[in-house]
Amino acid sequence: MPALFAPLSAPNPLGGKTLPKTSLLPLSLRPHRLPMASPARPMPITALASNQKNPLSSPSAASSLSADASHRDDVLRSVSAVLSICLSETHLDRTVPGIRSKTRGKVRDVYDAGDHLVLVTTDRQSAFDRVLASIPFKGQVLNETSLWWFNQTQHITPNAVVSAPDRNVTIAKKCSVFPVEFVVRGYVTGSTDTSLWTVYSKGARKYCGNVLPEGMVKNQRLTANILTPTTKAADHDVPVLPDEIIELGLMTQNEFDEVRSKALALFAYGQKVASENGLILVDTKYEFGKAADGTIMLIDEVHTPDSSRYWIANSYEEQFNAGLEPENVDKVWGLEFNAVPVYLGSL
């Protein structure tokens, strides 16, 4: 057997059923090592990730970079080195026996392997329903975060995970996916068209079957967590009432009731764990599917920085009382950055 491959029946961190030994998958999809900057000259690109003023955000700074060819080349080499380790595209359907087809999502590449799915979480960064860029090791963080939560929440609901043969890969049971995203919210916040603060600030006091009180302000905590399900229409999410889910035949009443209960329980548990670790789980989304034997299972991802909003707990009250946005550790920065043009001159 080539050293590059290992059987999918490798030890399963979640203790679940494994695939037949004949199935093969690359053990390492890319080098798991970050490039090191020269100690004599730190990579200029690090300034983009600091809290200091972006040195590339003004015309004069950009002009200076253009004039200093050596400095500009250092920046471009640093960018190139970082991007070279990004897992942006995968093609297991061309190289791995038993893979039947590929579906490319915004972040995940999903491969059909017969009775199972091979889900590869790439480094692609999406916002506003489109892919913006790739961030090194983002996929590994998302995949391993989900695996941890899948393991921790088995007392609430079964999940589709079978094994994880690579840092970016999860093998999952096939199931019939409910075409509904179960979004659970604990705070009035957000900036997208379907966010709770957006609709509330426009005067709505009923949303997805929930009655909202008057006088709430942005980033305020709700008196109780609420479920605001959405369904897909073309390339965007559409809020939907629970009754509409049943009427449209997306789920039966019993299925919806079971999933609603699981989603709220998952969120409450997630909030508890987050609180114990200095974070606030603000909102998130869950997806569920139904196995051939009728079992409803949690699928996709759980409580990742991509699917969830997290705030820093010990600064929330101070920020909120001052009318400032909470400090966050999720992908909201990407949404905000994408909404504001940045001047990069001729770089």
Automatic annotation (TrEMBL):
SUPFAM superfamilies: SAICAR synthase-like (SSF56104). One of its GO terms (molecular function) is phosphoribosylaminoimidazolesuccinocarboxamide synthase activity. It holds the Pfam family SAICAR_synt. CDD domains: SAICAR_synt_Sc (cd01414). The keyword Nucleotide-binding applies. GO terms for cellular component: chloroplast stroma. It is an enzyme of class 6 (ligase). Residues 103-331 form the SAICAR synthetase/ADE2 N-terminal domain. It catalyses: 5-amino-1-(5-phospho-D-ribosyl)imidazole-4-carboxylate + L-aspartate + ATP = (2S)-2-[5-amino-1-(5-phospho-beta-D-ribosyl)imidazole-4-carboxamido]succinate + ADP + phosphate + 2 H(+). Pathway: Purine metabolism; IMP biosynthesis via de novo pathway; 5-amino-1-(5-phospho-D-ribosyl)imidazole-4-carboxamide from 5-amino-1-(5-phospho-D-ribosyl)imidazole-4-carboxylate: step 1/2. One of its GO terms (biological process) is 'de novo' IMP biosynthetic process. Its EC number is 6.3.2.6. Keywords: ATP-binding, Ligase, Nucleotide-binding, Purine biosynthesis. Coiled coil: none annotated. Residues 1-20 are annotated as: Disordered. Belongs to the SAICAR synthetase family. This is Phosphoribosylaminoimidazole-succinocarboxamide synthase, chloroplastic. The lineage of its organism: Eukaryota, Viridiplantae, Streptophyta, Embryophyta, Tracheophyta.
